[in-house]
Amino acid sequence: MFAFTIKAFASTASFRIPENHTFQQTLPLPPVTTLTGLMGAAMGLDIEAAMNFRADNKISFGVSATYKGELRDLWKYNKVKTKETLKDVLIREFLVDYELTLVIASKDEKALSEINGAFGDPKYALTLGNSDDLLKIRRIGNIVTAQQSQSTDFENTVLPDIRAFEYESMIDLKDTPITYRVRAPQIYLLPTAFSFTVRQRRVSKREHFIFVGSPIRLKNPITAYTIDDLQVVLL
After folding, report:
1. pLDDT digits (tens, 9 = 90+) for 118-176
2. What does the DSSP 8-state code read for residue 174?
3. In 3-state terms, what secondary structure has residue 197?
4. Domains observed in the chain
5. Which ranges of 25-165 does DSSP label H, i.e. alpha helix?
């Protein structure tokens, strides 16, 4: 398995849960569809072409991220109906000072080389959520061979669906600063593939993902990969 890392920063980031509308809660880390769209933006592909490229070349992602705070933004907008226009509001959550480390992996080194070059000279602006959440690329690593191992310890990352998800917290509250926010793992059922027509995009596949915040230790080890001293599970 070949892989490379990208280190990046965004002043704000927001990953809306698809079913949330008036109150748009954010996921703590970018889901697979957001990462696919990010790759597509760098390569100049629309979302359908990016999805196909990912599937054809068996591209996998690993992600780790931290942020310094959260905010809620109140938006006022006009909602157009058949015979009238109504005013309405929504609340959207944002994550502030977002530090992202992204791993992109594949067995196809040529495809990875194409992606690596695209992030160095992206065709479109790179964002983490909204069009205002501009992403600054700080470092693009070289393509290396990822080292596979069995691991139990994870934090600030996303794991795939684990049928027997049993874990213990690695937080010692006696030594934890009062300002530290303890975040237990959260499981979400999220889209991973779409079917496309001329006018519509519909979800064709969903999978469960585990968003890990504070450090945990799994009771049963799972396969992870180490790339540039970062250990992640590939999605």
Report:
1. 999 999 999 998 888 999 999 999 999 999 999 999 999 999 998 888 999 998 888 88
2. G
3. coil
4. 2-232 (3.30.70.2660)
5. 32-43, 47-56, 109-120
What's the rounded Cα separation, in Å, for the pair 67 and 124? 25
Scan for tokens 């790759």, then name that residue: 39
Q: Residue 13 and residue 94: Cα distance in Å, rounded?
A: 6
Instruction: Report the alpha-carbon distance of residue 94 to residue 100 in Å, rounded.
Output: 15
What tens digit of pLDDT does each residue of 162-191 get? 888 899 999 888 888 888 888 999 999 999
Chain centroid, CA 47 distance in Å: 15
Backbone torsion region of residue 173, taken as left when φ is above 0, otherwise alpha when ψ lies between -120 and 50, otherwise beta = alpha
Contact indicator for 219, 188 with CB cutoff of 8 Å: no
What is the C-alpha to C-alpha distance for residues 231 and 52, in angstroms, rounded to an integer?
27
Overall size of the chain counted in residues: 235
The residue type at 50: A
- Region for residue 219 given its phi and psi (left: phi exceeds 0; alpha: psi -120 to 50; beta: otherwise): alpha
**What's the token pair of residue 64?**
């780790």
Q: What is the DSSP letter of 131?
A: T
Where does 98-143 have alpha helices with state H?
Answer: 109-120
Residue 96 and residue 210: Cα distance in Å, rounded? 22
CA distance 170 to 216: 5
How far is Cα 210 from Cα 193, in angstroms, rounded to an integer? 18
Give residue 213's region: left, alpha or beta (phi > 0; psi -120 to 50): alpha
